[in-house]
Amino acid sequence: AKILQLAFPDMQIADDFDHKLTFNIEGNKKIIKINDLDFTVDKSLVVKGNANFYLDTNQIDLAIKLNPGDIDITLSPLSLAPLSASDNSFNENLSVKILSLKNLLDVLPIDIKKLPINLLTQPINLTTNVTYLDQDLTLNNIDLAIAQANLAGKVIVKNLCKIPAVSYDIKITGAPYIASLLGIELPVNIDDLLVKGETIKDQELIKTNNTVIIANTTNNIKGTISLGDSIKPNIIIESSGNNLGQTIALLTKTLANNSLGSYNISSQIEGDLAKILKIDISNANFNLKGTNTNLSGRLTGDFAVAKPKITTDLKITTVNLDALSTE
82, 105, 202, 233 — which has fewest CB within 10 A? Predict the structure, then answer.
């Protein structure tokens, strides 16, 4: 119950689970075998399975099934050469198949009212290669499928027990479907999203350096976010693309405006979300029917007043408005 409370801090979890555990165990100096594992909690949650622990190579063969929910979890050694036990390493293939996570949570004394129920009823399939060595955790070849959505790629967590640094190279498809299950209506259409970079959290300071590719645009995001009483960003964003008209069409599911060509924008977001937030646009170039238009200046948001207000101080070169008409 205490472990579950750590995972679900806002939920009511009883500490009086009735449980029964039986299994057969045998082994020697190289291997420990656990067979016919049968773990029952409150006569409703049932876990069954088998496991082999290879002591000389730090490898595991494990297969367990949880019900209700029809959940299968397997671990098997990676094909690469295992490290010795003295290296404190872990190299495994992980597979998790879940028919309905809600069915499992329903039989546990957990308040799931705050969880997205529609998402919990979807089938979930996860496969990945897991490597752990010297506080570095690597998830290679991630393939996470939730109904019609998918996440694929690689995630590395360094200094897991100190100041963790998370690097990632992932592709997400079907984001609108997941958003709908969460009851969120996205302001734009996002079919494919590629994210690559690194984020470090040191107490109340987040440092991030990312590249996000979406709707045929490349967006570099670098800087810091200070947490605490309020959120204080200091972020530099550089965005570029070869066809702004096509990008807008992809995001809004409308016809493309062929007058809008390439673009690039450099800006900095700095301030306090509870007080003053400034967006400095140092350079924004747009190609309108072969004519370059430049914009620069500052947008300032004042959120400390009863009625938040936004002021602008922008400079823009001459624009041919006829070029903005949709063809």
Answer: 202
Q: What is the pLDDT of residues 26-36, one digit of tens each?
A: 999 999 999 99
In whole angstroms, how far apart are CA 288 and each of 66, 159, 241, 264, 321?
59, 48, 13, 13, 9
Distance, in Å, from the CA atom of 287 to the CA atom of 283, rounded to the nearest integer, reads 13
Q: Tokens representing 178?
A: 């997941």
pLDDT tens for residues 138-164?
A: 999 999 999 889 999 999 999 888 888
Mean pLDDT of 109-127: 85
Q: How many Cβ atoms from other residues are within 10 Å of residue 232's Cβ?
A: 19
> Which tokens hold the place of 225?
């976010």
pTM score of the predicted model: 0.82
Of 294, 284, 282, 283, the closest CA to residue 319 belongs to: 294
Q: State the Cα–Cα distance between residues 83 and 89, nearest whole angstrom.
A: 7
Which H or E run includes 282? strand 276-288
